[in-house]
């Protein structure tokens, strides 16, 4: 719950920032000189890129959460069996052991979104965020019967 509050607070701050940057871009364009129009147009590109990125990130998080809820309803969420350090961090060897099992499950059932979801969690626990994201994207695509990229999380 705390993560959602932080996410929405940061998203709100970003939206305010995009509005401010956009208004500055419009003000530059209104000056009417070739240089200010060029700078204004360049400045206006930034909020559009930011909004697109924020939309994609939010969509990804919502889709992953939807899959987590469905997997939880089926009783298929991965159980937290990881060993932790006294400070609460996940032990690397423990994460690697769980990852190896999840990878085998995924290789045995490459078309199962549930296996890819659990693999994404294992990648995350092993602190491999880029591969965790790719595995989750593949799980979402498989769940939604969308085309799957060949290089996703391999």
TrEMBL record:
Lineage: Bacteria, Bacillati, Actinomycetota, Actinomycetes, Kitasatosporales
Residue spans crossing the bilayer: 7-29, 35-55
Domain of life: Bacteria
TPR repeat positions: 113-146
Alphabetic keyword roster: Membrane, TPR repeat, Transmembrane, Transmembrane helix
Keyword Transmembrane listed: yes
Protein's name according to its UniProt entry: Tetratricopeptide repeat protein
Amino-acid biosynthesis found in the keyword field: no
